[in-house]
Amino acid sequence: MLRHTIRDAFRLIRPTQRTKGGLILSLLMIQSLLDFLGLLSFLPLFGLIINPDLQDRIGNYGNVFPALSQQTLLIALTLAVLLFVLIKNWLGLLIAKTKAKFIYNVAKDLSARAIEAYTRRNYNSFSKTDFSREVNIIANYPFVFATNIITPIATLISETLVATLILIGLIILDFRIPILLLLLAAPLFLLYRSRKKKLAAVRDTLKEQYPLLLKNSLQLIEGLMEIKSSAKEHYFIDKQSGPSAKLSEAYVRDHVTQTGTTRITEIVATFIICGLILYTTLATTHYQDTIFMLSIYASASFRIIPSINRILLSILQFRTHDHVIAILGEATKADDTIKSSPAESVPLFNRQIRLQNISARYAGGPWILRNANITLNKGDRIALTGKSGEGKSTLLLVLLGLLETEEGEFFIDDVAVGASSLRDLIAYVPQNPYILDASLIENIALGIPEQQIDRLKITKIIHELRLNDLVALLPEGMDQGIGERGVKLSGGQQQRLAIARALYCDKEILLFDESMNQIHESLEKEILDLVSGLSLKGKTVLMITHKTHNASFFDTVYTLDKGSFTKVNDTVTFSDR
User: Do residues 553 and 574 touch, judged by C-beta distance below 8 A?
Assistant: First the structure.
């Protein structure tokens, strides 16, 4: 039901915003009252024009209009009506601006809540993410909600109030006119009922095909090089054309439905006016009464017919897009987020970090880590190796706070801490780093406003990582854009950028996830020498690796087998594995 859907939409708005919404509703009511008074302001003019005898009554009432000629009185009333309408519409613009600011602040807040919920998701949820759907929820649906849900609701309330006030006034003036206007509304209501199925079909098409269109577009854009190299362009173009054609048809049906409603309203109104003229003519009603009645009906129709149109179009608009309410409600509920723990005092990391009896798994599946124990001594270079699927990546996710453990404890210098305390100590160097479509310096200082970036620090890191040659090739140096996902960089350059990003964070622990895979041997040695220097400075290095030829580089080596860690004291044994 419409009432239940509006209630669900109301629940998406924060309580503080609902209070502001009440103020907006009050302003809309004032605007509706002003619109009603604007309509009433024309009645004295019509009365004086049609029945000049009214001048004597107005002129003698309380001596307000003493001895004014009919022409002077008409001019005065006309100017008064004009001034009132100008003031009313000026206030209407202010109210409309206030309403729009409120509506799109709600959209901005919903988008922010969707982003926050997404960033707090745990790995179990993140691994199932449909990225195009999430982009739609964050960047599109909040504004669809504002434009096609809140705005129609506001219009529905204000226009219904206007129509009600006009009908009440007309009942007092002449009961026949409201009956005629109700006759106008009846066929429009029947029209809406007859088009509910078409609206449902349009809504379902928008709900299904728009995310699919976005998903196909992202696949084509992100995979263009491989698509072109394998000459598969036509497959993806054809794949895109299906949802696009269905959306086009849906928008055509929606446009015709909305336009048709306006046209039918005009036809019905014309029939009623013609019927009214025939009725007064056949009934030999006095000419002045006929003109007055037509004037009142025309004045009422001038405002109430657009109101009926807006009411019906608001309902159509609301019904076409009401699917976003449930989607946003689910997205902002965020039941699958990482549970936030209260802020704790993190002890200094001076000696060692211990993970004791850690057990973790994915979404109720088999245990990946089971009663696992590992110690990270400060300043050590630690290697973690093992077969694929044994749990190396799971440990990484635990350390980064992306996967919650079900059992076990974390200790910093023998003080028990939460997982978030560990995460705050770690800088992560992934195998395939994410690179923004931004400058080199913004990519290294990821997440820091440009005006706050320490350029001297980045210059030093670039020199240490042998990225000077890359900077020299860029026309704008460090400030040069490096393309979406780093398309202007080689694999080795991308990897060094990821290391530079980790070094800029200046964390206690550097966590490398197969980060040497794309680097040639000479550069790998240079980076390992740099890492060795960092270790001497007190940095702790944990490297997940399959490369065994650098075993002697590490102080400690762990192998992971069946969910448990085994410390390998003899690095030769490690290198022979």
Answer: no
Domain 2-333, CATH: 1.20.1560.10
CB 474 within 8 A of CB 481: no
CA–CA distance, 183 with 297 (Å, rounded to integer): 13
pLDDT top residue among 573 and 456:
456
Measure the CA angle with vertex 435, ends 487 and 232; round to 5°.
45
Q: In terms of DSSP H, where are the helices of 337-454?
A: 392-399, 419-423, 440-444
Identity of the residue numbered 45: L
Can you state the percent helix, strand and coil of the chain, rounding each to 5? 65, 10, 25
Predicted confidence (pLDDT) at residue 247 exceeds the cutoff of 70: yes
DSSP 430-461: -SS----SSBHHHHHTTTS-GGG--HHHHHHH
Distance, C-alpha 184 to centroid of its chain: 40
CATH number for 352-575: choose from 3.40.605.10, 3.40.50.11890, 3.40.50.300, 3.30.428.10.
3.40.50.300
Residue 357 reports pLDDT greater than 80? yes
Question: How far lies 75's CA from each of 50, 71, 85, 295, 298, in Å?
Answer: 15, 6, 15, 19, 22
Task: Report the 10 Å Cβ neighbour count for 376.
Answer: 23
